[in-house]
Amino acid sequence: MSASSYAALERAELSATMLALGPDAPTLCAGWTVKDLAIHLIVREGKPLAAVGIVLSPFAALTASASAKLAQRPFSELVSMVADGPPTLSVFSVPGMEGLANFLEYVVHHEDVRRAQPQWTARDLDRAEQDLLWSRTASTARLIARKCPVALRLRRTDATAPVIALKSTSDAVTLAGSPLELILRLYGRTAVNVEVSGSEQAVRAFEQAPLGI
């Protein structure tokens, strides 16, 4: 399957999970319910001016206004909008953009919903999707971990692969796990199955570091 196919699969499964849990269920995104997450995804894909405020604080009021209007709609309608994908004129509708821009977005947010629930269990993703996640980890890890003050080494445990080394200092922290678990940890999620090793000082600095885009 292509990255776009996996992105579409994650979108569909996330939508089904959100609908099953309901609007008020928690997520791993601090302060966000499932309904809040659905609104975020709709704004990101379908409200280009408002979406700017997601990453640029001077435009946050536009994001808040668009989100408030969407919040008045029934939850089932919001989930349907997520499941249907971006509007035709959205940049996210350009061929290939689903895989390029939405694969990690939907993988991470799918887990944000799943892992915020009691007694969550890790999914057993197929090898091809894990390989794709590992490839994306290699290409995005430096950006995601740019604010981490210590060097990181990422070791894949579900398959043989070269270690990904970020920065070059003697006091490094090693993260070991499957690609799914590693990418979630790099995005700042702590409900993960990742082994963290290194000096006490380095590990503490890593755990306090702001991670993610």
Q: Explain this structure to me?
A:
- The chain is α+β, with helices and mostly antiparallel strands.
- The chain has two domains: 3-114, no CATH class; 127-208, Nonspecific Lipid-transfer Protein, Chain A.
- Helices cover 54% and strands 8% of the residues.
- The chain is built from nine helices and four strands; from the N terminus they run H-H-H-H-H-H-H-E-E-E-H-E-H.
- The protein has helices at 3-21, 34-46, 48-55, 60-70, 75-84, 97-114, 127-144, 179-186, 200-208; strands at 151-156, 164-166, 172-177, 195-197.
- Strands 2-1-3-4 form a four-stranded mixed sheet.
- Strand 1 (151-156) and strand 2 form a beta hairpin.
- The longest helix is centred in the first third of the chain and has 19 residues, at 3-21.
- It is globular.
- The protein starts with a helix and ends in a 5-residue tail after the last helix.
- 37% of the residues are buried.
- The model has no long low-confidence stretch (mean pLDDT 90).
Secondary structure elements and pairings:
Layout: H1 3-21, H2 34-46, H3 48-55, H4 60-70, H5 75-84, H6 97-114, H7 127-144, E1 151-156, E2 164-166, E3 172-177, H8 179-186, E4 195-197, H9 200-208
Parallel strand pairs: 1-3
Antiparallel strand pairs: 1-2, 3-4
The main sheet comes to:
4 strands, mixed
Number of strands: 4
- Roughly what is the average pLDDT, rounded to an integer? 90
Question: Helicity range of the residues?
Answer: 40-55%
What is the 3D form? globular
Strand order of the largest sheet: 2-1-3-4
